[in-house]
Amino acid sequence: MTIETLGGAVTLADGTPVPLSKAVRAGDFIFLSGQLAFGSDGKIVAGGIAPQTRQCLTLIEAFLQNLDAQLSDVVRATVWLTDAGDFPPFNTVYAEFFSEYPPARSAVCSELMLPDARVEIEVTVFKPKE
């Protein structure tokens, strides 16, 4: 099986390189690294859990489109929330993106690496190579 890194180098807003891949393809699966709610300015979007969840999923969706994949190809998601009280509003936004056939999912409450981040989402995608 061939393993391929996808998405180019990862850097922090200040240009510091981060030793990880945005995504890795292994066979028919694509594993996306955890996505934070970065805005176009490189900062975490403001406004709380709903806009951050929406931004994370919008960024994941855009990344998948560049790989000729889509959210319906997601088979598993792992979610980190910094506040368990954010779980209900998180689910409301999440359901907008995964309404009919949501993927398997785990959600945990944990601190995140950036202090303004309230949610991080990583996904596994099944997308056979053509």
Automatic annotation (TrEMBL):
Alphabetized Pfam families for the sequence: Ribonuc_L-PSP (PF01042)
Organism for this UniProt entry: Shimia aestuarii
Any single GO CC term annotated in Swiss-Prot or TrEMBL for this entry: cytosol
InterPro entries named in the record: RutC-like_sf, YjgF/YER057c/UK114
Any one Gene Ontology molecular-function term assigned to this protein's record: deaminase activity
The protein's name: Reactive intermediate/imine deaminase
